[in-house]
Amino acid sequence: MPKIDAPEKIFFSLLGKEMSDEELVDIFPVAKAELDGHDTKDHVIKIELNDTNRPDLWSAAGVARALKTYESGEVRKYDFFSTKENSLPSDGRAVIDDESAIGIRDYSIGFAARGKVVDNDLLINLIQSQEKLCTNFGRKRKTIALGIYRSDLIKYPVHYAAVDPDKTAFVPLGMEEKLTLREICEKHPKGKEYGYIVSDKPRFPYLYDDNNDTLSFPPVINSARIGAVEVGDSDLFVELSGPILEDLLLTASILSCDMADMGFEILPVKVELAKETKYGKEITVPFYFQDTQKCSVKAVEKKLGLKLSGDDCVKALKRMGVEATCSGDEITVFCPPYRNDFLHEVDVIEDIMIGHGLENFSPLMPHDFTVGRLSPAEEFARKVKEIMVGLGFQEMMYNYLGSKKEYIERMHTDGKDAVFILNPMSENYEVVRPSVIPSLLESESVSGHAVYPHNIFEVGKICIKDKHDNSGTVTKNSLGFLVSDNQVGYNEASSLIYTLMYFLNKEYILTPVENDPRFIPGRAANIIYNSRKVGLFGEIHPQVLESWGSDMPTIAAEIDLDALLEEKKPEVKKEKKTEPQEEESITEQFKKKVILKVSRIVDVQRHPGGDKLYILKLDTGEGERRQIVSSIVPYYKEEELMGRNIILVSNLKPANFRGVKSNGMLLAASEKDDTEHRTCELIFADDLPVGAVIEFDNQEPVEKIKTYLKPEHFFALPMRVVDGTVCVEGNPLGYGGKHLKVYKYIDGNVG
Questions:
Q1: How far apart are CA 687 and CA 645, in angstroms?
Q2: Cα 39 from Cα 54, distance rounded (Å)
Q3: Each residue of 170-187: pLDDT tens digit?
Q4: For a surface tag, which of 171, 206, 290, 538 has the fewest beta carbons within 10 Å of its beta carbon?
Q5: DSSP state of 644
Q6: What is the rounded CA–CA span in Å between residue 28 and residue 30?
């Protein structure tokens, strides 16, 4: 839980009076906090917060506001908020977001403050609030980065854009030499800590004023001039950047209210957004965006077991800083500008309970008594953990809520079994975890600096849809493990599964995994126990690794421990006999699905974001140039590629490789037993005309599919080199009687 250090002088000044430690202990639960300590030597009150849904309480000003409002029953009004219908004058202060930042770090917003001279305690308090909001609420600056600047040095408007990281340079805070944005990521301590957030992007976020003076490189570091707030400053500009507008607006509201409570005059800033939002393309910050929430008086009585009138509920909410009205049985709540946690009527009832006073609830002795013990599932989970630790794995612990991007999009799955939260506080917590593997991959994505191999696991819960359950969902205990190293592959994953099942005394069989985009086709297997699928394992697909920003070969597995714990075999139902259907051959599927074209390389460029990647421009004979991305830098020099004819899989589904779109894939051969992708020989076709379609000898005309071919479907139709000729099931491929030839790996694989 978040902890804050509140200087006595500031805290008691905001509270309006001094309080003893005993008094603080009694009243802190009102702010969902507790006294963690009191350093009387340095005059610092240490506070631990017990609610991660209330970032407005993660500061001395926030806690003091909650306590003061509770005691007085008066709600503080803030007159500097604009709405969609009414924008306050900004007097020339503006932030202009450029379209170049879309998809990199979409939004930058801000507000200004003046009229309060910054002293040492106030500066420390501002920095602490900044770090708490960015680290806890902003997920270590991934979704929220916040900078405070010297407003008197800024010429408005402030500009926010994505720029060339190798051409844009400034002197960062804490250093004296000018560095490019990429050099900051490599040399500056904050760059090493936070640079990974944007380092895989083709362009980096950059904030500067109308004089072209640098404010910062969000989300990494401020400039040494405008971004160096010092004791004695009184005119400040606060800027926030991130991918989720609502999170930025809420953070700006929290900080502006805190600063207003500390004596600052808050000045609105007009923000011109780069894309249309539900609030428009132009908003004035601080901006009130929250929706009202409703609750019935009957629901309050039912949940609390205490009969309260509508007026009692409104009064209790007011003590919590919440304005509300009651008409009949319906309570309407108007969320304070610094909060956005009223997602359900239960949240309203919780505030009514605290506002009414916990001391007003009579304690009741429980009527039922039980004896505690470990459940069989917990005992089994502990045994699994012991085995995994014995195999050299490190145990991890993760959140059970996450974003659609993490659990679905980056895994390249359809998410049809995922359980979504109806009214999430943030997009970061909108999905209940459907698998442990994304959590493990997130850890791997930020562990590239650690010594390999990486062996991590978690025994935790997952939740998926289940139409047979009354709730429509089912929660399972699941084991997930991951190994990342340059030598790992299917065989090692299979060996680990064998060892685990041996020590658990579980007999199992393996079956092939079909159509799972998380794994490389043909390099994954289902685990069958008691005639039931209980898990799977395999080599993670390169496209999934690319989505997570990882390029190290990785294997992963996931096992349903609840199913593995069951000893009774499920009843086998007799199935009706059906006439066997003749399965279409790979060759026939290849004819219908795959389009191979002779194409000439007309331009070769190194990928700015990938050491092993070329960006190739191709003449396919179709009139327009085709662009593809290929990881062949270790095997071919640029001059060896220019002007050569290659074979293009022209109907492959487009994909993004580190920000660059690839429209197809070239064919290459490799050694027969090369599972680590260490060998490569391009299949050149300089003797064939550009635009020629590669087919089988004497192939009859066939109707091709009209949609893009997914990579997993392409790799499910394997090509081989037979005595130096490219074949499918022994049938040669070519054009006009000339076959595609390979000269080095004459009995290898093609992909």
A1: 8
A2: 25
A3: 999 999 999 999 999 999
A4: 171
A5: -
A6: 5
